[in-house]
Amino acid sequence: MRTAVARALLSMIVMLAGVNAQAAELTAFVENGQLGIALNDAQFPDSLQKDLMSGLTNRLLIRITLEQSGQSTRQRSAEIAIRYDLWDEAFTCATRLDGAAQESSTKRSLQEVTAWLDRIRLPRLFDTRDVDNAAALIVHAELLLNPIDRERMENLRKWVAENSTRRSLDPAGALAASDASLANAVFNKIFEQYASGSDVSAVWQQRITTPRFTLETLSQ
Length: 220
Prior knowledge:
Layout: H1 2-21, E1 25-31, E2 34-40, H2 48-52, E3 58-68, E4 71-85, E5 90-97, E6 100-107, H3 110-117, E7 119-127, E8 137-145, H4 150-162, H5 182-195, E9 204-209, H6 215-219
Antiparallel strand pairs: 1-2, 2-7, 3-4, 3-8, 4-5, 5-6, 8-9
């Protein structure tokens, strides 16, 4: 009996060790005075590979928040869109930051796409010139995979294109800041609706946080 219990406990320890070893990791880096993030080993759902081959666009939304001395100071919204062309048998992968195109590439295999998603890199997020080198910093990343149905996302895209002037999505102006883009407000609205448990649904969601760091430690 004791042997069976010991084996069960050992199996559980091994299983938990494997989970921890594969846990997602978020780290910050600085390039040319700009703070960026690297997101490694996000544990996407098993259904993602099948969805990627569907020919429909799959979207990963990432809201990145910079926290300084316990206060959220700045925020960016990134979107990664992946579409498989059934005719060309290739994947188009595009990254947008606050609605502006950043990078686009073509992947020739599903393995290449999944390897790319396992090592997501988002540079040039926050200017560090006005950040104290010794200040305690933390970066939070909230991820949503296909958070709303595709038709609704396309309608939102059209709405953004037709309303290029900066304004809030809500009458109270709670989402808009003087320096926030309209696209950022759209993504904020999606995240807030999802967090409140309203009719926005996501296949998968995750929140990842960096260890506390300073700009001095990153430059060492």
